[in-house]
Amino acid sequence: MCGIVGYLGDKPSEYIILNGLKKLEYRGYDSSGLSILTNNGDILTEKEIGKIVNLENLIFKNDISQYHSKCGIGHTRWATHGEPSKENAHPHTDCTNSISVVHNGIIENYSSLKDDLINKGHKFLSKTDTEVIPHILEDFIKEEKDILKALDRTLSHLKGAFALGILIKNSNPSLIGVKKGSPLILGIGEGEFFLASDVTAFLDYTNRVIFLQENDIVLVDKSGYSIFNNCKKIIRKEEVIRWNSSQAQKGGFKHYMLKEIFEQPEALYNSIIDKVNFEEKSIIFDEFDTEFKNFLKEDIKIVISACGTSWHSSLIGKFLIESMSSIPVEVDYSSEFRYRNRKLSKKTLIIAVSQSGETADTLEAIKRYKGDNKILSICNVVGSSIPRESDFTIYTHAGPEISVASTKAFTTQVIIFYTLANYIGRLRDEITEEIWVDNIETLKNFSKLVQDTLKTNSYINKISPELAKYSDFLYIGRGINYPVALEGALKLKEISYIHAEGYPAGEMKHGPLALIDENFPSVVLLPKDRLYEKMIANLNEIRSRRGKTIIVTDEDNIEELNNYSEIIIKIPSINEFLQPILITIALQLLSYHIADFKGCDIDQPRNLAKSVTVE
Fold first, then answer.
1. Vertex 120, ends 118 and 124: CA angle to 5°?
2. Cβ pair 544, 528 in contact under 8 A
3. Residue positions annotated with a catalytic role
4. Class for domain 2-249, per CATH?
5. Angstrom distance (rounded) from CA 44 to CA 67
6. Which of 136, 391, 403, 615 stands the most exposed, by the fewest C-beta atoms within 10 Å?
């Protein structure tokens, strides 16, 4: 996944595509490429790793302007399947180079599709899930002789969420777009048309757009465009974009952080969909070999090494793994772990957690134990340093995260820990069939609950001016939500510069209670779980000292809680193991709106960097 651009018109297509790809650079990527239809109807593809300027130099060197192309597709790739390389960069073509495809999203069942295609004689050049698409379409075009029917049959074989841009070898230039779960927009100019995953790519040329809907197929040629859904021609409303280019990069959101908070339903879905088979009620980690699976069944312990926000997600991971598999887990700051003179048993698994895969302390920590202990990493960037130093890697599919303050990277790490804990627990026969099925079913509907949680945004925005006047906050939680209190406090101080502390609620009497007064508000994490009554007792402790409270809860009996607080943020109910993600999202919104009201530089807070690559 990352950015799609397509063009059909009278201008040189390579120029339009390169310009569009540059507009999408803010999304982050590791390679780029384009395919053009030449003046004799052939497809020419150029790809390069690294920055778009590398692709631009290659195109200039090969002088593709000589082909006078008026139609093409381009892509910036953020690696999900296969490391960053020319072979894995998009576009991907079929065996005869008559079809070229760019793709955002994930094809869940690509592995079985690829095996079937190889058995039919198809040759694959990459390790991506995307490459199965042109090969399947190649077969159906031969059978159908009708592009729409061939596309419909192709889509019926693909499982997952995706957006596609497609070129087919033809003397009559045409452009094809497909939307299923991932954004795709048609731009309408004067005698020219555009496809893009983000309007930023073509706003220099037109602001007239159609936002394609689920399962739409758009066919574009010089005469115009047609949109089909389930093979029926339909009419979609044309809209006019009023954003400027900077706003468009942020999807209409004021800041990248808010945009990334709202991207979490898709990011969480993408992070589990290639690991969880809902029909068969199974979890599969293709990353693990038989030896490692057997190792996980043994009498082992786990040490997790991480920094910052990743350390908080790891604390939740500890709770999940210990609860579901009975394996003892330690969580250590990488900056401490790397310097301690400690001998670990061969039966110790080290899990390294990092969004960027370049976190210096975490990288050095695993280098120290590499060879002596098995190392598993959880990371968002394919081909980065930490995965290269690891024996096994589980990738989150959060996509690029531009804002320095991590949001979707944190929640996707948590959902990976949830999936991994279930997997290990089942492997060790610690989870019953009934609980196993229930846990997987809960995942199936989880994105909807995340979307419901995001509906708290307007209420949180409304209460933030009152809260922004305070200079100190205390965040408290119990059990699995104690790390959420730590993360909530971290987010507030990162972007608003307000001092905040996270604390286990049971420790209130051991010091923090001395700070409580009417000028020191407490954010109380109060899900209706087995520790609910204990948290009510903590609420009483705060209120009896005239402390102001902000409650985050899934409790339906809000009237009872009104006795404890004037500010109650209500989120959906779910099992205790996934509740931290929903609570975290509410706390992300709380931090964001307080910082926004204060006028802080939210996406680039002072003194902080996105990837900490030095000590």
1. 30
2. no
3. 2, 610
4. alpha beta
5. 9
6. 615
Closest CA to 320 of 579, 505, 528: 579
Cα(138)–Cα(72) distance, integer angstroms:
19
Nearest to 147 by CA among 128, 162, 167: 167
Please name the residues in contact with 49: beta carbons below 8 A apart, sequence gap of 6 or more.
30, 31, 84, 85, 86, 89
Distance CA 33, CA 89 (A): 7
Q: CB of 191 within 8 A of CB of 205?
A: no
Question: Which of 154, 244, 229, 161 is closest to 199 using CA atoms?
Answer: 244
pTM given for the model: 0.81
**Architecture category of domain 453-598 in CATH:** 3-Layer(aba) Sandwich (3.40)
Q: Give CA separation, 575 vs 164, 449, 527, in Å.
A: 36, 12, 10
Cα–Cα distance measured from residue 76 to residue 566, given in angstroms and rounded to the nearest whole number = 47
Instruction: Name residues whose C-beta falls within 8 Å of residue 365's C-beta, 6 or more positions apart in sequence.
Output: 305, 334, 337, 338, 350, 352
Strands 71-77 and 31-37 come out as: antiparallel
Q: 310 is written with which tokens? A: 């990743």
DSSP 422-435: HHHHHHTT-S-HHH
DSSP-derived 3-state class of residue 46: strand
Number of other CB atoms surrounding residue 609 within 10 Å? 10
| Cα distance between residue 109 and residue 92, in whole Å | 18
Residue 293 neighbours by CB distance under 10 Å: 13
Please count the helices (runs of H) and the strands (runs of E) in the chain: 21, 27
Extract the residue ranges of the chain whose pLDDT is less than 70.
1, 27, 171, 243-248, 609-615
Pick from 1, 149, 181: nearest CA to 88: 1
Strands 71-77 and 2-8: antiparallel
**How is domain 259-444 classified at the architecture level of CATH?**
3-Layer(aba) Sandwich (3.40)
Cα distances (Å, whole numbers) of residue 211 to 101, 194, 216, 231, 560: 20, 12, 10, 18, 44
- pLDDT tens digits for 537-577? 888 888 888 888 999 999 887 878 888 888 999 999 999 99
Sequence spans of domains, the chain: 2-249, 259-444, 453-598
Q: What is the 8-class DSSP label of residue 389?
A: H
